[in-house]
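Give me the fold.
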Amino acid sequence: MNGIEVLPEDPGEALPVIIITGLATPSEIAKARELGVTEVIEKSYVLRNFSESLAQATNRRPPSS
């Protein structure tokens, strides 16, 4: 089972969802977005992009570096 398989078909007013993946194809990423995923981060960029994605998902500014 993968993260896309556990997403509800109709997320309604669910919390923002961020998926971290190393194997998703462009079509799987598109499907995740259709199911309400807020951000998709490739594992090779996790540390660099996580705080930015979290800030975007919660409509906040990332911490200054």
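The two ends are 37 Å apart (CA to CA).
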